[in-house]
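Sanity check

After download, print the first record. It should look like this:
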Amino acid sequence: MTNPCFHCTDRHPVCHDTCERYKAWQEFHAAEVADKRRRNDACTIHKNDFDEEFWHGNPQRRRRRRRHR
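Expected structure tokens:
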């Protein structure tokens, strides 16, 4: 949904204080932004969210093999 001020014929200086269409759009837009932020936060990986043992694997398998000469 676009801003209702786009191509508005009733537009005048400081009309955002009195325009009912703008107030309704502003509430809708704030809810839309909050929902988008909530959905993005659900996909965010934070510093301490991962299981270190799973991430780095089994340390027993990671031993270096000696080269035989």
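If your output differs, re-run the checksum step. Summary of this record's structure: Helices lie at 20-42, 52-56.
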